[in-house]
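[Automated response] Your request has been received and processed.

Submitted sequence:
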Amino acid sequence: TVHLKGAKDYDITDKEVEEARRNSYSTGDDDMLILELAVQKAFGDVDTKDITLGSNVVSKNVSKNNGSIQGSNSINLIYLITGKEGEAKSINNIYPDGKTYEDELLSEIDNFEANNAKDFALVLSSLNQKTAEDAEGNEVAIFGPHAYAVKKVEKDTITLTNPHDSGVEITFSKNEALKTFDGFSNCDLSDENPAKPAELPVKTYEDGTKAYIDDLSYFNLMDATYYSKEGEKTGSFSINSTSNTIKKYDTTGKNEEVYEIPGVDLDNSSAKELLENIIERDLHSYKNLSLEKIVELARLNESEWQKARKNLS
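Generated structure:
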């Protein structure tokens, strides 16, 4: 069982490991291979909306070849493994106060060294295929676009591992690393950066539809969003606690209906409770109900709801 702190637990079988060895997965340590299989399952759950990930995971960018994961943003992988959000920067960014990309990367390498690799993750990325000179003067191939994990930093050298074969280490001078790698991702793994694990659906219905509540309280909004078994958005409700209105949207995000909720001054807590009742009572599935009627049914107490549901077709 692999516990991905940014997702959930995944069981990996001996059969899956053996099959992965015959395909284009990573080589070297079996632990790395098993981790790769768990990450693949997690991204599958993202596709079908069985989980939703942290706000920093904006794009999986996953492609498959012969059953293997070929690529994903390294900051996403750090999140999946740790549940913690980091940051990614590249040579294409604009840096303030006259700083350069090299200044930023060297600062992060120094942070890694100062922490002795504890509570700090650093990944270097190359955007293109190229060659570089290792610390012993040998020419080595650098894959691109590809990411390399920093394993240790000692004085003027930096040692990396390639996820393609985690059993092999490559050591560069810091200057060579600065010239070779075009981007980096870093993450504070200490308790000061709390984990934000993946969210599970508020409810999964018998047909496989999944419902989530999106807390956008900083905008005084609370949304309930529905996804099909395959992960396609099928509609949503949105409550604005400032205007006391609820809106119903179709699959394209087009506003189908708006209703001003009478007799109550909503706050974020009561808005969330109302959406939870809409979800729990499966009110989205009654296609003949107006939005006004849906709100009325959602505001009933449990005994009133049990009586009212008998009259619903």
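Summary generated for your ticket: The radius of gyration is 25 Å. DSSP finds eight helices and 18 strands in the chain.
If you did not submit this request, please reply to this message.
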